[in-house]
Amino acid sequence: MMLSTREIQELDSAHYMHPFTDHKGLAAKGARVITRGEGVYIWDSEDKKIFDGMSGLWCVNLGYGRKELVDAAAKQMEVLPFYNSFFKTTNVPAAQLAAKIVSLAGDRYSHVFFGSSGSESNDTIVRMVRHYWTTLGQPGRNVIISRKNAYHGSTMCGASLGGMSGMHAQGGLPIPGIVHIEQPYHYGLAPNKNKDEFGLEAAGWLEKKILEVGPEKVAAFIGEPVQGAGGVIIPPKTYWPEIQRICDKYGILLICDEVICGFGRLGTWFGSESMGAKPDLMTFAKGVTSGYIPLGGVVVGKRVAEVLIEKGGEFNHGYTYSGHPVACAVALANLEIIEREGLVKRVREETGPYLAQHFAALSDHPLVAGAETFGMVAGLVLMKDKKNHIAFDESLEVGMVCRDHCFSNGLIMRAVGDRMIIAPPLVCTKAQIDELMAKVRICLDATLKDLQGRGWMN
Ligand SMILES: *Cc1c(COP(=O)(O)O)cnc(C)c1O
Predict the structure, then answer these.
(1) What is the spatial distance between Cα 210 and Cα 219, in angstroms, rounded to a whole number?
(2) Quick count: other Cβ atoms within 10 Å of Cβ 139?
(3) How many CB atoms lie within 10 A of CB 393?
(4) On the CB side of 335, how many CA atoms lie within 13 Å of its CA?
(5) Cβ-contact 100, 334 below 8 angstroms
(6) If we measure between CA atoms, which residue out of 425, 427, 431, 404 comes closest to residue 415?
(7) Best of 126, 222, 232, 260 for a ligand 1 pocket test (most atoms within 8 Å of beta carbon)
(8) Which among 166, 200, 167, 171 has a CA at the least distance from the CA of 186?
C-alpha cells in the first residue's frame, strides 16, 4: 500500500515522538518525509531532490546507495546475525574491526570497546576513566572537565559532558563531577584578538579550572577536535597543543570525542591528528559505518588499557550489542572503501582545500561573516551588520529562516543559532562542491531578500 505524504505525516504526528523536536510546531507543518538516497542526494516523498550538505547527521560519509555496505550486512546476517561478547565469547567481525581501528589510530592505542552510539560510548568513557583512577588508588580523581556548547550525546552522561544549556535544563543535569569551561570560539568571543593568542588563552581556561577544582581531583578533559553540533567551531591552531601540554603537566587523561571528526572528516583518520592532540581515549560512532547501521565505541590508549587489563579486574560494564557482528561487518566494509578510494588523503589534499577556498569566498556576501572550514566541515555566521559586528536579535531565529530557504532550494544546510553549517559526504567531488556552493549562494541571496523584506536588515 502506497501512503500519501499527508497520510505518513498524520501517522507520524499521531505516534512518532522525534528527537530534539517541538511536537506542536511539527504537527502544524507536518514532517518532511525522506524516502530514498543516492550519492550525495536524498529525495522526499514528493520526489524533490535535495543535496545533502550534512551527510545525514554527520555520518553518511560514503554517500547513499553503497551496495558493498548493504552486501556486507546481508552476508553477515545470514552467517551470524547476532551473538554477544559477554561470557568469554567473541565474533569474527568484532575482533577484526577492533584490530583495524587500532591500526588506523596508531601506536598509542591497543584496544577498542564497542557500543552502538556516540552517547553510549561517552558513558563508557566516564565509567572507564573513573575505574582507571580508582584502580590506580586515586578514587578522588573523578571530575571530568568539558566545554560549554560541546555535544557529547544525549544520554545522562553524554548530555552532562555536553555543554548545551537547553539540555541541562531538562532532567536535572549535569550529573555530579562534570564541569565546563568556555569554548575556543574566536569569532564569537574575541574577533579582534590575534587568533593564535586567543587559542592559548582559551586553552589556559582549562588550567584555571584544574587549579580551581584541585589537580588531585581532575580525572580527564574531553573535547571534540572541532565542535560540531555547537556550530562547527574550529579552534585556533595553538589551542589543542596547549590543551595537551596542560593535560600532561597535571597528568590528567585527554579524551577526544571523534564521533564527527573520526574516519576522515578532517582529512586525517582521526581529527586529533589534525589538531596536534594525543588523546588517551577516543570516542567514535557516526562515520565508522557511514551511518548505514548503528555502531560506536571507544579507542583505548595503552596508558589506560594496560592498567585496566593488568589491575582493573572485571569491568562491570557493557551492552547487549557491544561488538554486534553485523554492525562490525558493515564498518569493516566501510573502512575498506575509504582506504581503497583514498578518501582521507583526498579530503586533506584535494576536496578539503577546494571547499575551503570556495567557502571562504562567501565572505563577500552581505550576510556572511566568519566563514571557515576544516576538511569537510564548514561554518559561517549570519550577521546583521558584519562591519560593526552586530548580530541579529536571537528571537528572530534568522538561522531558521535561512534553513527554510535552503530546504526550498533543494539543499540541506543546518542552522545552529545564526551559524549555518555543512558537513558534506567525504565522497563529494569538486564538481559537486561547485554545485553545493552555487546552491548555498542562492539560499543566502533568498535569505537576504527575505530579511530585507521583513525590515530586519539595516
Ligand atoms: C552525534 C555525536 C554524539 C552522539 O552520538 P549518538 O550516536 O547520537 O549517540 C557524541 N559526540 C559527538 C561529537 C557527536 O557529534
Answers:
(1) 10
(2) 12
(3) 10
(4) 23
(5) no
(6) 404
(7) 260
(8) 200
Contact present, 203 and 239 (Cβ < 8 Å): yes
Question: Is the distance from the beta carbon of residue 414 to the nearest atom of ligand 1 less than 6 Å?
Answer: no
Question: Does residue 7 belong to any structural domain of this protein?
Answer: no
Please state, in angstroms and rounded to a whole number, the distance separating the CA atoms of residues 111 and 107.
11
- The response to whether residue 231 sits with its C-beta less than 6 Å from ligand 1 reads no
Edge to edge, the sheet with strand 296-301 lists 109-115, 296-301, 281-284, 253-257, 218-223, 143-147, 178-181
Q: Which residues of the chain have pLDDT under 70?
A: 1, 458
* pLDDT attached to residue 2: 87
The protein residue whose alpha carbon is closest to atom 6 in ligand 1 is: 118
Residue 87's pLDDT is 93
- The residue among 340, 364, 386 that closes a domain is 340
C-alpha cell at 296: 560506536
Query: Structural domain tally of the chain?
Result: 2
Q: Does the beta carbon of 117 sit less than 6 angstroms from any atom of ligand 1?
A: yes
> Could you tell me if 373 and 307 lie in one domain?
no
The pTM (predicted TM-score) of the whole model is 0.98
For 217, the grid coordinates are 581531583
The residue nearest atom 14 of ligand 1, judged by CA position, is 259
SS3 437: helix
Residues in the chain: 458
Q: Are 252 and 226 in contact (CB under 8 A)?
A: no
